[in-house]
Write a structure and sequence with these properties.
The complex is a heterodimer of chains A (about 220) and B (about 170).
Chain A lengths: L3 E13 L5 E9 L2 E7 L1 H4 L2 E9 L7 H8 L6 E9 L10 E2 L9 E7 L5 E2 L1 H5 L37 E2 L4 E13 L4 E5 L9 E6 L10
Antiparallel strand pairs in A: 1-2, 1-12, 2-11, 3-4, 3-6, 4-5, 7-10, 7-12, 8-9, 10-11
Chain B lengths: L2 H10 L14 E10 L2 E15 L6 E8 L2 E8 L5 E11 L20 E3 L8 H6 L3 H13 L7 H15 L1
The chains are: A mainly beta (about 220), B alpha+beta (about 170).
């Protein structure tokens, strides 16, 4: 199966390597995940594994969730995602997947839910420069400026970047270096930041990107 | 495992085992490992500890000295393996945690602090004893056990007294 697991962002810290260099790392509690369902072409039209992370308290889980997880012999899960596969998997329903899966993986893609920033202007949301502070500019210092031509076409073109809800949406950070993994306590340390707040759920998969500087 | 415990566990690997004992105001010599080509050599940096900041693996301390009439400050990560050692050469009596006021001083006054004997107990020894809570207690008990003493019984009695007063009211 493609190397993919679910987990939780713990937070950032600094660690020293053997040479004495300091690394800013993000700690991720990765797994253990359980296979909740194996999808087959006969029944579902495609091959896939459904995996779940972290037990849901009995109070919060509804009957369908509980029943679905019961087939795998586990409690209902909080965070459930699907792994699409090319052909039938070796994994069976109920199998536990741990961070040991990522042994030897150099870099990963991480999908998390961004911190919500509410209704934001174009400067924060899209990195626009805004208008000038002085030289006669009045009350429009953070405005986007022109949003299109005049009588032709007579309307604003599609996909013009404007203000609006920013954050609280999925974000993928690609090609993040793996610093180390600890199968004993189900931890993965990656270099640099990871999308989302501490305690947010993340999906980690082996990256398809090549290391920086190499050519395909 | 709670998230804080996970963090502690991750950071524990990066914390140095030979925890240096020094305080603000101490004159110290920091032994810094330096790589020259493939040879390693130790370069000392002597000065006065004027600040300590951060916690866990991020803890830093700042050493100030005067080189050819010019003040030089260097901040070191306390837990860096690049610091081979730290020797306290003099202790001083200071009343604040950050000695930034020394930056404005020129000449001899720049380092004139009231000296303390080298074997003096740490300035915050008393404070540490009065700490409450499970963890402080556990630390105290461990320390007492290590030194072969029974844990202090006095403290318990003192704590009971105020509770008794309340009931009489």
């Amino acid at each position: 199966m493609p190397k993919m697991l679910l987990g939780e962002k713990v937070g950032m810290t600094q660690v020293f390597d053997e040479a004495g260099n300091v690394h800013g790392v993000t700690v991720i509690q990765l797994g253990p995940c359980h296979v909740l369902q194996v999808k087959t072409p006969e029944k579902d039209g495609y091959h896939a594994l459904q995996i779940g992370y972290k037990e849901k308290p009995k109070k919060q889980a509804n009957a369908p969730e509980t029943g679905h997880a019961k087939k795998a012999g586990v409690a209902a899960k909080r965070f459930v995602r699907e792994v699409r596969l090319g052909d039938a998997p070796a994994e069976a329903v109920g199998q536990e997947l741990t961070v040991a899966l990522f042994e030897g993986v150099a870099a990963v893609d991480i999908v998390g839910t961004m911190k919500g920033r509410g209704f934001s202007g174009v400067m924060k949301r899209h990195g626009f420069s805004g208008l000038e502070t002085t030289h006669g500019v009045q009350r429009k210092h953070r405005a986007p400026g022109s949003i299109g031509p005049s009588q032709f076409p007579g309307h604003v073109r599609k996909n013009i970047r404007m203000n609006g809800q920013y954050g609280n949406s999925p974000k993928t950070s690609r090609n993040i270096k793996v610093y180390s993994i600890d199968p004993e306590s189900n931890l993965m340390l990656v270099e640099g930041p990871v999308p989302g707040a501490n305690g947010g759920f993340v999906l980690v998969r082996e990256t398809k990107k090549l290391p920086k500087g190499t050519k395909r | 495992m709670s998230m804080n415990r996970i963090m502690e566990k991750v950071e524990a690997k990066s914390l140095r085992a030979d925890r240096f004992e020094f305080e603000i105001g101490d004159s110290v010599e920091v032994q810094v490992r330096i790589l020259e080509g493939d040879k390693e050599r130790i370069q000392p940096f002597a000065g006065l500890v004027i600040a300590r900041s951060g916690s866990g693996t991020r803890e830093m301390f700042t050493v100030r000295r005067i080189v050819e009439g010019e003040g030089v400050e260097r901040s070191f990560p306390l837990n860096s393996p690049k610091i081979a050692g730290l020797v306290v050469t003099r202790k001083a009596k200071v009343r604040r945690a950050k000695l930034y006021f020394l930056r404005d001083r020129v000449g001899k006054r720049a380092f004139r602090l009231k000296e303390r004997p080298m074997n003096a107990p740490p300035a915050d020894a008393e404070k540490k004893k009065s700490r409450k809570g499970k963890r402080a207690k556990a630390e105290l008990a461990a320390a007492a056990e290590a030194s072969g003493k029974a844990p202090a019984k006095k403290e318990k009695k003192e704590r009971k007294k105020p509770a008794a007063k309340k009931t009489t009211k």
